[in-house]
């Protein structure tokens, strides 16, 4: 497959679609996701990106929207399509059949028409074992386990849409126009489980129809007990036998099918493959396995058989095993373990109370995420994982912009920014590491490298966030891969930023690892501008520092090496006083990971016109105090806010006795913590 | 069914649809036709209107166009839908399946959605016996003849679309929203034949797939010979057995189903009915029957069996017979007779070379029909069946307007109009018939009734035309029903106007019958304004009349009874001469139908500036010669043209010795002929 070719994944934000996108990326494919999100969440997409460390094209469109779909085919060189998009609730399909036929069939017909228009010849279709219907109808078990040859007789509108789409694709492939079309029909049995990361799984909406999602809700107390519909079947424990397949195995089946279609070259093909394990499990087997994963017995009750249920629906997966060289490898125990992890870490799936996001700077890769706890509100954007807003009631406590362009403007004085890969100044942007000299971008008057140059952490869209809520706190994770050579820094650096947002406090934890190379330099901080005066200016803010020691600097603002005292650590910031100094709280800690330190209070700030007090603490040995005299940007002027920037020593890399603070070697972890509290 | 309720007929311009619309009207239903004309012709609609003597709403839309369809449901109170619209060629469906699925299935889904939106609960669906597939697949004849219970297994995309639509409608009717939906599935066997009028039938496009249309084309020499696919089947003559049903019987089946659904009240229903005769005929039976209709043996050849063909596909129609009280009454002999009539009279269906029409005054009920023979061109509009244009090469020979509004304007001096029900003047609009006095509209200075009043034949849209071409002549029929009491005339009067257009001549034949009442008065003429001068004025046109005798008139322009001579019948129309006189060519013919007379030359006109000579002849006893001095309208002034208006004597109804000329009694026919020739 040539570099520029894409795989269009319809319904890629859904349960099976999202897992398949991950497998695609792992196998070197470039996915484009199309989803109308009618039954799924964009958060799934952003979690995929977090897992695979890349952004990819996403379009929120309905497949029935021909012109929107056509635009995508015009813009990208699409080689193949994996078609998941469909309504899929059996019960619902009997209530609103016309919506199922409209969405599933029209959507597919429209997709096929656009594919034909753009000469796209490869499609993997997400079908279902429901097309077989009740295979016991033959009066014997000649079709158990179920082979692909089993005659089809779906018994509900959902199943019929899958059946009809198979017929449509088959007829197209039989037509002249479709003679070189390659169609893989994948008939799923019972997909279960979730992504082992705990980041992805089936988004639980409404009352689950399926055994395991239901059990999961019993386990978290959302449902009272599991109903087992009949235990008088001819199985080892009397409950019906189904073929449960781990969603990861299922996703891998799609890659196998896609590879197979690519392998056979340009000749046409229409072929069906069962995706199942071939091993049947009873309802009770699954129940016990899930109880094991949860670690306790879950309440259940045996009730009457459900009409339409039959004893055994196990797949005969031989065809897929042989032709696609694909085999389900995971069992129900792994599935239950993964599902339980997903469930406990995301009890309500992607829905989290008091967390909302919206597009920022018209870009789904840069969203504004808002977190609320009572009257405490925090806003964070993907661009720089920047703190855009902190407020208590109506009182704004930091400087922030309302739109993306202001953040990208050169007049933005690093509002709320996370500074990396190296905070503060590096003399003339030069340093030596393992005897090798490096020249960084010199973005401060063509001399020093300030705050990492032109394309620092603060100027990139971070992956995520992964948002979770427990113990009354939001846990919000962002991730960034800073590329080797960016602004001159060596080595790919992965940084995970953990925000913990509780009532009236924000904790920031930085965690960076070198992905390649021997070593690099790291020094991270957050650059929020605080203003607790309840007015436009920070003048007359009262400060109480954790130290009076600071680094003297030369006229290039680079430390001379000399440490001095400012006199008193307690003062009022009158309009004639200003600061841009690096204070020292611990001369002797030169570890790259300071997180094991106690949080040390660096600054306590209050103001006569406000009841709110700010306390900044950190595990790092130093901090820059800056009184914001240089602010001159959209809506903000000089002294609109002040910064407390916990970090390593200023220009530490160029001072032999400090440099250990900032040199990250492979297999080590850079770490540091900052906490902002409001009292 | 309340007066204001309509039946929406999708695909109503098609073969079966058009015949069903006629049955609907005959059964007191009010149809609305929707058709995208992708595979049919509007001429079918205008022929239906000609047959049933009424206009009905027609919309050229595609069912997939939701907003267009919605507008129709908003505008009309639609009680039920009969759904024919579909692509239907089995062979084609295997070549372009996606178009079949898109058109047939999406169209239906969209229709159902709009029906649900407007709470329309009754639908009759045009399905097909193809849904059964090969009923011999069971290895025995348990399903021959084929009952509705026979399992379905369509073998081509066309059949699958019908099958899928059945499933969709079934699922909708099973859903809560569809619980009170009434669905009649009508499974057709082999529709054949045509409308006995010879006006409607299957429009032959491309190579026919079916036996009889193919035979018909062999009969008219369009195909060399019939191929009979195998004569070694186990039938009486070795050819396969099918169930051929006359399209008229089929159409009646729809009315029976509709009546049935209306009868069962508001309870929901989903039910399938076979529409077939129950009597199988072999290919050879049909061949022989058609040869009988044609009157000669048609060439055929027995070739190899066709794959997919089976011995016997005869319907078991018992369910329809019993439940719908419907039974096929016509046999293959009638069908062959009707098909042959349709074929001979319309060898190319609705397609006729050198005949075209387009909308006139933005109204499909008023179209401009253009006929060309070599350099001779004639235009006729439905409004008044008016002659809008006659030209030879570039020379225009009559006065006419380019748009409908000019014709409707009060300044239109009856350009090209057919005048009826009573041409010329009736004194004070009064007359007495069978001792009863009548007062007509007095539209000439509030005194005389001129050219029938305010709403004469010339101000109504005529049905038709039915256009045929043979012996180098167009035969063009229009029809008008002039209502009892219109402008004061008694009795409903049906008038059929036959135009015969040959090279450089037009013949007009009027034929009127009284539809009710004892008698009425009729006097018809055509009011074309000729100008053969090749210039703007008719001055200096040279006339040679067939008579010098004319009726003297009083100052109200009503004859005194005295007949006088103008001196010489040969004269040049100099600018100082003008005419508006009734000339007499036969004093003694007082028959109501003059068509048996020889055409008598009334006027020969020529002009020194033009090579073209006009000869007007007629079977009528008189004619009005008018030099157009009163013309004053859009683009035309005084003396732009002259009229020769063959007719009965001026005001004849009020002259005892003339009145027989114009009194039409029931069971009699008014008739007259006019001919315009150009030399």
From TrEMBL, chains A, B:
Coiled-coil zones: none
Superkingdom of this protein's organism: Eukaryota
Names of required cofactors: NAD(+)
PROSITE patterns: ALDOSE_1_EPIMERASE
Limits of the NAD(P)-binding domain: 8-338
Catalytic activity: UDP-alpha-D-glucose = UDP-alpha-D-galactose
Gene Ontology biological process: galactose metabolic process
Keywords per UniProt: Carbohydrate metabolism, Isomerase, NAD
Gene3D superfamilies according to UniProt: 2.70.98.10, NAD(P)-binding Rossmann-like Domain, UDP-galactose 4-epimerase, domain 1
Pfam families reported for this sequence: Aldose_epim (PF01263), GDP_Man_Dehyd (PF16363)
GO terms of molecular function: carbohydrate binding; UDP-glucose 4-epimerase activity
One GO cellular component, as annotated: cytosol
Pathway(s) it belongs to: Carbohydrate metabolism; hexose metabolism; Carbohydrate metabolism; galactose metabolism
Family: In the N-terminal section; belongs to the NAD(P)-dependent epimerase/dehydratase family. In the C-terminal section; belongs to the aldose epimerase family.
Role according to the record: Mutarotase converts alpha-aldose to the beta-anomer. It is active on D-glucose, L-arabinose, D-xylose, D-galactose, maltose and lactose.
Family annotation (PANTHER family): UDP-GLUCOSE 4-EPIMERASE
Record-given protein name: NAD(P)-binding domain-containing protein
Organism: Candida verbasci
């Amino acid at each position: 497959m040539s570099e520029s070719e894409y795989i269009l994944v319809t319904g890629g934000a859904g349960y099976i679609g999202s897992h398949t996108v991950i497998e695609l990326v792992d196998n070197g494919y470039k996915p484009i996701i199309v989803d109308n999100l009618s039954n799924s969440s964009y958060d799934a997409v952003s979690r995929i990106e977090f897992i695979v460390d890349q952004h990819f094209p996403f379009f929120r469109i309905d497949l029935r929207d021909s012109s929107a779909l056509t635009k995508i085919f015009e813009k990208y060189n699409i080689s193949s399509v994996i078609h998941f998009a469909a309504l899929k609730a059996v019960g619902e399909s009997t209530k609103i059949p016309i919506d199922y036929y409209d969405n599933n069939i029209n959507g597919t017909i429209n997709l096929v028409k656009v594919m034909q228009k753009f000469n796209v010849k490869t499609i993997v279709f997400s079908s279902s074992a429901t097309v077989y219907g009740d295979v016991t109808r033959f009066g014997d078990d000649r079709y158990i386990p179920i082979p692909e040859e089993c005659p089809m007789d779906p018994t509900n509108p959902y199943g019929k849409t899958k059946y009809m789409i198979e017929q449509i694709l088959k007829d197209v492939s039989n037509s002249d126009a479709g003679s070189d079309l390659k169609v893989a029909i994948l008939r799923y049995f019972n997909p279960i489980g979730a992504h082992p990361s705990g980041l992805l799984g089936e988004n639980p909406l409404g009352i689950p129809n399926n055994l395991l999602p239901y059990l999961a809700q019993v386990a978290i107390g959302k449902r009272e007990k599991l109903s087992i519909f009949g235990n008088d079947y001819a199985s080892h424990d009397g409950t019906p036998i189904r073929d449960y397949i781990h969603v990861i195995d299922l996703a891998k089946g799609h890659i196998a099918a896609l590879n197979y279609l690519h392998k056979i070259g340009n000749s046409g093909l229409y072929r069906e493959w069962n995706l199942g394990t071939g091993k049947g499990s009873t309802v009770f087997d699954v129940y016990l396995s899930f109880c094991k994963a949860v670690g306790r017995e879950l309440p259940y009750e045996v009730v009457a058989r459900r009409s339409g249920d039959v004893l055994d629906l196990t797949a005969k997966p031989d065809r897929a095993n042989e032709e696609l060289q694909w085999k389900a490898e995971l069992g129900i125990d792994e599935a239950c373990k993964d599902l339980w992890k997903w469930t406990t870490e995301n009890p309500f799936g992607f829905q989290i109370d008091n967390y909302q996001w919206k597009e920022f700077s018209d870009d789904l890769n840069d969203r504004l995420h808002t977190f609320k706890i009572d009257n405490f509100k925090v806003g964070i954007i993907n661009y720089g994982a920047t703190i855009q807003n902190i407020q208590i009631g109506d009182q704004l406590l930091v400087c922030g912009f309302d739109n993306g362009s202001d953040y990208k403007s050169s007049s933005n004085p690093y509002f709320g920014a996370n500074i990396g890969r190296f905070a503060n100044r590096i003399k003339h942007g030069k340093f030596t590491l393992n005897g090798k000299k490096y020249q960084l971008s010199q973005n401060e008057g063509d001399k020093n490298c300030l705050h990492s140059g032109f394309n620092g952490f603060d100027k990139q869209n971070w992956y995520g966030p992964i948002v979770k809520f427990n113990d009354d706190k939001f846990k919000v994770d962002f991730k960034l891969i800073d590329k080797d050579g960016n602004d001159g820094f060596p080595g790919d650096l992965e940084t995970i930023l953990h925000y913990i947002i509780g009532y009236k406090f924000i904790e920031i934890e930085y965690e960076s690892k070198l992905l390649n190379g021997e070593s690099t330099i790291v020094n991270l901080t957050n650059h929020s501008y605080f203003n607790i005066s309840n007015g436009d200016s920070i003048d007359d803010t009262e400060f109480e520092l954790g130290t009076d020691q600071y680094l003297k600097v030369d006229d290039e603002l680079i430390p001379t090496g000399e440490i001095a005292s400012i006199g008193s650590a307690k003062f009022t910031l009158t309009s004639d006083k200003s600061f841009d100094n690096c204070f020292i709280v611990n001369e002797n800690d030169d570890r790259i990971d300071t997180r094991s330190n106690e949080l040390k209070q660096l600054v306590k700030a209050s103001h006569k016109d406000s009841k709110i007090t700010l306390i900044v603490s950190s595990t790092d040995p130093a901090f820059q105090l800056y009184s914001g005299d240089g602010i001159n940007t959209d809506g903000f002027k000089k002294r609109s806010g002040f910064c407390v920037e916990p970090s390593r020593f200023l220009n530490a890399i160029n001072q032999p006795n400090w440099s250990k603070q900032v040199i990250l070697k492979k297999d080590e972890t850079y770490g540091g913590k900052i906490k902002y509290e409001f009292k």
